Amino acid sequence: MPALSQKDFIDIFRRDWGETWPLLAEAQRLRERHFGREVSFCVITNAKSGLCSEDCAFCSQAAGAQGDVPRYPLPPQEELVAAAARAAAAGASRFSLVTSGRGLNSKKEQEALLGTVAAIVDTVPIRVCASLGIVEQSFLKELKAAGVSRYHHNLEAAASFFPRICTTHSYAERVATIEAARDAGLSVCAGGILGLGETLVQRWELAQALKALPVDAIPLNFLHPLPGTGLAGRPLLPPLEALQIIVAFRLNFPDRHLIICGGRQATLRSLAPLIFAAGANCLMTGDYLTTQGRLPEEDRQMLADLGLELVQETVSSDRQAVSSNK
Fold this sequence. Notes:
The protein is an alpha/beta fold. Helices cover 40% and strands 15% of the residues. It has helices at residues 6-12, 17-35, 77-89, 107-123, 137-146, 171-183, 200-211, 239-252, 264-268, 296-306, 316-325; strands at 38-48, 92-99, 127-131, 148-152, 187-189, 192-194, 217-222, 257-260, 282-284, 309-310. Helix 2 (17-35) packs across helix 8 (239-252), helix 3 packs parallel to helix 4 and helix 4 (107-123) runs parallel beside helix 5 (137-146).
């Protein structure tokens, strides 16, 4: 199908429920063309929590946030390896180590993280991802050599909206990190958070920015306003609008992995199973960074009820690449 114009993109959000159904059918057709009936899971772990220097308005770990969140440094290696093993047992294809802060730039922390990655790759049948903030390309290359297959770094929002949600680092730095990860040989996962107060044009702007970048997977998050954060007073998106967002991104990105992540329970509520009709082919399961998620067994049952197949991506090629780098 031809690429969506800005008008086509925005018109998706002008439709009522009945007018949205034909778009769901088109989005599902695209998902099945490129991914069949297969769905994959990813799991994240909060590998360094709180005490963040950045002021992202949506985040309970941000500088100035008043929420009661855990604060701890990198856990012992064995704890993170055990978490990866639980993720693999739950059916996840990917396990991501996520740390708070501007970037994991302490040499001691970097070495500890690299050791943990290597231990997971050696013992757990799962692909390892990392979300460590703004880091140097030299460290990204070390992550690749240790066994990380994908780097996650969201744009969060459109460039024109970004200064309203973060002032301690720039949008350009986020773009540069994504490009550096790709240049380091890593697959890249980058998306954003919807429902921050952005306009429909700014949603289109975000989609176009992602299209211009070397992005393999696009995580879509929906704002779950948390007490003590800068966006605590914002309302949840209506469930239908959340589905329209997924449709709009699937029609914009026919062959990219669309991962539905944070905020899906609170936002989608009873419409959650329709995310696959809207075009999603991946799901973050389990807990999020500071909030409770959905149990993997509940998500597996949802897939079974829908006649979809949970697949665990092979890790053999990743291990082969790591071995050649040692």
